[in-house]
Design a protein that fits this description.
Blueprint lengths: L1 H14 L10 E3 L4 H7 L10 E4 L11 H11 L3 E5 L4 E4 L3 E13 L2 E4 L3 H4 L4 E3 L4 E3 L1 E11 L3 E3 L3 H7 L14 E2 L1 E12 L2 E3 L6 E4 L2 E6 L2 E3 L16 E3 L1 E12 L6 E2 L3 E12 L4 E6 L6 E15 L3 E8 L6 E17 L1 E9 L4 H6 L3 E16 L6 E6 L6 E12 L7 E5 L12 H10 L4
Parallel strand pairs: 2-3, 3-5, 4-6, 5-9, 6-10, 8-11, 9-12, 10-13, 12-14, 12-15, 13-16, 14-17, 15-18, 16-18, 17-19, 18-20, 20-22, 21-23, 22-24, 23-25, 24-26, 25-27, 26-28, 27-29
Antiparallel strand pairs: 1-2, 7-8
Length: about 450
C-alpha cells in the first residue's frame, strides 16, 4: 500500500509539482474570507480553510482526473477542495485516494464518471467479496465530503449492457464499478450530496471505522425500460466498525441499506426508502469456512415504500457455506407501505429449497432480534402474510421478539405472521408456513 501511494505521488509530481499551481487552479488562504464567500467556499457548518479549486470539464469527454488528484493532494492535511456549483468535473481514470489526512471536499457541482466500459473493466480496484470493483478508493483519516452537488456514476450504459445478467451468477464476468468506496478509512463523513446512477452498489465501505452519512439522497433510474438499474444498493459494508446513516433518502431498486460481513455498531435513523429490497442485515455466511458477523445495530424511524422487502435479515444455508452470527439487532418505529414482504427473517438464503435447508441448515446463529412498532401495509402479493420468519431446522435462532406490530394486507384480514424453526416465544401469534400456504390457496393466490 505504501509503495502504491508513493508511486501515485511520483506520477503526479512527474507531470506537475503539487506545490505549484496548475492551469485553471487556485489556492485561497483561510484568512481571505471575502474571496471564499465570492467563490462559494464559506460554509455555515464548516470553518473556513485553505481552499483549492481546479478547472472544470469543458464537455463530457474532457477528463480532469489529473487536476482532481492534484487538487486532493494540495488540499490534504488541513485544506479543502471546492468543486463549484454549476460546474461538471469528468473523471475518466481510476484513482487511489488512500493517503488522505484531515481533508474536506466541498462538492457543490457535479463529479461525473465516464461510461467508457472497456477502460473501467480493465482499470479498477478489485475486492473478492461478490467480485466487487470500484472506480476509486478513499482511505486515511478525518475525511469530510459535503455540499449540495452530485456524484454521478453515469450508469445507463452499464444498465443496458448488464440487462439479463445476475451479480451472484458464478459465471458472470461483466463487472460493474461501485460509485463510492472507502478502504482503511477512519472518521469519514458524507453530508448533503446526491449520489446518482451508480453502475452497481452505490456505497461500499471496506475495513473502515466511524463512517457516517447524513442528509444524502441516493437514486438510480434508467431511460430504458428493458434495462433497469440492478444491484445499485444504497449502502454495503465489509469489515466495518461504526456505521451511521441519518436523515437520508434512497430510491434505487435494490437494497436500501445492507451491511455485509463483519459490520458492527450500526446506527440508522430517519431513513426513507422507496422502490427498494429493504433495510437488511446481510446477507452473510456465503463463503465456505469463513466466519461472518453482524451485530449491535439500532435502526429507528424508517419509512419503506413500494418495495420487495421491508425489515430483513439474510443468512446463507445449503452445502458449502460459511458460519457466524447476526446478533443484537433492533428495528423500531418502522413504517411500511405497499411492500411485498414487510418483515423477513431468512435463514435459508439464497433461494435454498426447504429440503436442502433442512439437510444443510444455516451455520449463522440469529439471536437477540427485536422488531418493535412496525406499522403499515403489505402489497398483498403474499396474501395475508405480513411477516415471514423462517429459520433453518436445527439451527440457532432464538430470542426473536416482535411487539406492537400493526401491519395489514389488502388481501384480507386477519394478517398472518409466519414463524418456522424459532426457539421460544416471539411475542405474537404466528403460524407455520404450511398453514399459510393453505390460506393463500383458499384465496386463489397460489
Amino acid at each position: 500500500m505504501k509503495f502504491f501511494t508513493a508511486a501515485l505521488f511520483a506520477s503526479v509530481v512527474s507531470s506537475f509539482a503539487v506545490d505549484s499551481l496548475i492551469s485553471g487552479a487556485s489556492v485561497i488562504p483561510a484568512t481571505e474570507t471575502h474571496e471564499l464567500r465570492r467563490i462559494g467556499a464559506h460554509h455555515h457548518k464548516h470553518h473556513d480553510r485553505r481552499t483549492v479549486t481546479i478547472r472544470s470539464s469543458r464537455n463530457d469527454t474532457d477528463d480532469v482526473s489529473r487536476d482532481f488528484l492534484w487538487g486532493i493532494a494540495r488540499a490534504n492535511r488541513g485544506g479543502r477542495l471546492l468543486l463549484k456549483k454549476g460546474e461538471t468535473y469528468v473523471i475518466g481514470k481510476r484513482m487511489d485516494l488512500s493517503f488522505l489526512n484531515n481533508i474536506e471536499v466541498q462538492l457543490d457541482g457535479e463529479l461525473k464518471f465516464t461510461d467508457d466500459v472497456p477502460y473501467w473493466q480493465k482499470n479498477y480496484f478489485y475486492y473478492p467479496f461478490q467480485k466487487s470493483i470500484s472506480f476509486w478508493r478513499w482511505g486515511g483519516q478525518d475525511i469530510k465530503i459535503f455540499g449540495t452537488g452530485v456524484l454521478n456514476g453515469n450508469g445507463q450504459r452499464w444498465y443496458n449492457e448488464f440487462a439479463g445478467q445476475e451479480i451472484l451468477d458464478p459465471d458472470n464476468t461483466y463487472l460493474r464499478p461501485i460509485l463510492f468506496l472507502t478502504e482503511n478509512a477512519t472518521r469519514i463523513s458524507v453530508e448533503g450530496i446526491t449520489q446518482l446512477n451508480s453502475p452497481c452498489w452505490t456505497n461500499f465501505f471496506v475495513g473502515s471505522n466511524d463512517v457516517s452519512f447524513d442528509d444524502v439522497f441516493i437514486t438510480a433510474y434508467s431511460t430504458n425500460i428493458s434495462a433497469l438499474p440492478k444491484n445499485t444498493d444504497g449502502f454495503d459494508s465489509y469489515n466495518v466498525n461504526g456505521l451511521s446513516v441519518t436523515n437520508t433518502r434512497v430510491d434505487v431498486g435494490d437494497d436500501c441499506f445492507s451491511p455485509k460481513p463483519n459490520t458492527t455498531n450500526i446506527f440508522v435513523q430517519n431513513l426513507w426508502c422507496n422502490n427498494t429490497h429493504g433495510v437488511s442485515m446481510g446477507s452473510i455466511g456465503q463463503y465456505p469456512g469463513v466466519m461472518d458477523i453482524i451485530e449491535h445495530a439500532y435502526l429507528e424511524n424508517i419509512t419503506l415504500l413500494n418495495g420487495q422487502n421491508g425489515a430483513r435479515l439474510k443468512a446463507w444455508a445449503g452445502e458449502g457455506v460459511g458460519y457466524g452470527r447476526i446478533n443484537n439487532i433492533t428495528y423500531k418505529n418502522i413504517h411500511i407501505e405497499n411492500t411485498d414482504n414487510p418483515v423477513v427473517l431468512d435463514q435459508c438464503y439464497f433461494d435454498i429449497e426447504s429440503e436442502e435447508c433442512a439437510k444443510f441448515p444455516s451455520q449463522v446463529n440469529v439471536t437477540d432480534i427485536t422488531f418493535e412498532s412496525i406499522s403499515g401495509t403489505s402489497s398483498g402479493k403474499e396474501g395475508r402474510v405480513v411477516a415471514d420468519l423462517i429459520c433453518s431446522p436445527n439451527a440457532v435462532c432464538n430470542n426473536i421478539h416482535l411487539a406492537d406490530i400493526n401491519l395489514t394486507s389488502p388481501a384480507g384480514s386477519p394478517p398472518v405472521i409466519i414463524c418456522e424453526g424459532i426457539q421460544g416465544d416471539i411475542g405474537v401469534e404466528c403460524q407455520s408456513s404450511t398453514n399459510a400456504t393453505q390460506t393463500k390457496r383458499s384465496l386463489g393466490m397460489s
